[in-house]
Design a protein that fits this description.
The protein has 176 residues and is an alpha/beta fold. The chain is 21% helix and 40% strand.
Length: 176
Amino acid sequence: MIQVLDKTFEVFITKEELAKEVNALGSLLNEDYKGEEVIFIAVLNGSFMFASDLMKTINLASEISFIKMSSYQGTESSGRVDELIGLKNDLKNKHVVILEDIIDSGITIDKIISLLEMEQPKSVKVCSLLYKPKAFKGKTKPDYVGFSISNAFVVGYGLDYDEKGRNLDAIYQIKK
């Protein structure tokens, strides 16, 4: 058990389970995009650990770029998505894989995809470490998912609670 601010969390996904799943996702992406060039777009801040570990497994001709979006306040999605830092890469006729730490409502990923499609990429796919199918209300489900999880609040491995807990090497679930 750990304490982050005023909440108590318990281990939900160990660092070993994370490593195994990240390697599996990397192998799948390497196979699906064999012989292709891919631009990976990591969504900050949450995906930084996932993106870093995933990129170590990628053996494709690839680039990585980062965008920053915001839709969280505390433990609840605000329902609003604001673009904070934009993309500089030329995406026209290129394969794009968006790297997300977690997809719950789907609002953020739908906004990101709509912004990226204006750049006329060859394809846009979504790779998310975590996916909350019961919370999902969006249009675009992730193409690659590490773990489908319940609607509980989680922290660690890049995920935060009011910007705290991102540095934890495992994923922790809020203790009821």
